[in-house]
Amino acid sequence: MVNKRTFISIIVLIVITILPSTSAKAGNDFIVVELRTDIPVIPGNHDYQVWLGSEGGPIGNNSQIFTNAWLSVDLDNQPGLFGHKFSQVGIVAYNDGLHWFVYAEPGVICLSGEQTYGNLGCQGEVGEFVDFGYLYKVELVTYFGEDYWIARVEDSQRNSHDVAIILSDSKNVYRINVNMEEGWNTQADPYEFGVFRMWHPQYNSWIDGFQEWPASDSTKNKLYSAPIDICPQHYGAWIFLENDPRYWRAGTSGSICKAVMFPAHQLFIPFVTE
Amino acid sequence: MRRYSGIFRLITIVFGVLLFTGTVLAAAQKQYYSDRAQSTPPNIPTIIRSPSPTRPAYCVPLPGVPQPLGSPSATPDPFGAVISTTSPRLGLGPSVTPRVYAHTIDLSPGIPLRDKWEIIVFRCDGTFEQFLGGPEVNIFQFLDLQAGDVILNTIPPASLMGNEPPEQPDETTTPSGTSIPYPPPIPTSVKTPTMLVYPAPVTLTPESVEP
Questions:
Q1: For the whole model, what pTM was predicted?
Q2: What are chain A's domains?
């Protein structure tokens, strides 16, 4: 017969073997639009905005999954934890609804919502300023002489809300993205539902106001998926919405995995509503 | 006869001037709308909305939408002073006032805070409760939501936020000024001569649209 010590060893072995396989994992899927920053006026002007909207978020019962869309800047380029001073403002969907959020590695002061993410961010309550079905302007800006950045969210009435102060005096921007993301920590990637719209990323020239992001030429504004294999099986993009090269969707069921955004040669005749 | 000819010439000149002016104006307007930054986004065709809770009349009303502590600092007039006149930090407290929770229930005390999800519940009696739990805990099972209780916020762990996507490695670029799609490389061992003779599609810009 099996003695007591052997029995205990077998039990311990089973626990050690089974536990990791049943424990939750975590990961993030992205549909990235990497905006070009090679023209000096872009990293030098420190005021960026884009309109973001959501057609819907997670529909499962698991509350521990989110899909979101955001504008981000890297305020540094050093290696190591928080070395990029990655800072983002956007909208995030859980199965309870849509929220605005700010996450910034330099640390934040929340002017609205709640302090979150280990004091690296802020998040609004469900329905505060944002809801599904609308495009909202989000903005990251620092002004001359100031030693911080401001994260700003516009509501559906076009009221501007400074929602957070980002504690960085950086006047250099090393990377700018407008992305869709799924974040999960379940046993496997659930590829939860999320469809977001992105419209007209712009930078402030400070002389002529906001300008459309420079078109792609030999340097490109690139769309791609990360990891690569999520597209097109789970997430992807649709581009040229309403004949507009600066209007795209990203998320569930999108079929485009890689593209050059804002091509220089594309003629765009806007739908004038005024 | 000569008089009519003069009138006809005058009409022709006036008409020509009007036509020319109209064409110039239309072209200028088109160029104006093409160049300027757009600021009126289109509508999104959806009927989904965040759920708005229906609560019994005897419940304490939901907390109002928090207002920013400072007035919004609009983007300065581009023709005005570039220097911001006021610092939002100077007139503000350190941050939003933290909530006072009647209870904080930590369902995963053994793991770091940066790995925990957080759910904030507003009870019918006006108290706030905070639930913390790791990814292996279904926090919803522990909320014990009664009539009038509302989930105010769901907050992911810090470890799940802030994961920056990897940069795409530089690839061979298309010639300057073009972004016409190009076909993927074709293995030389496979004989598909017909694919080689077709020109690349010229309508859209994706470098490659995967099926």
A1: 0.75
A2: 30-261 (2.60.120)
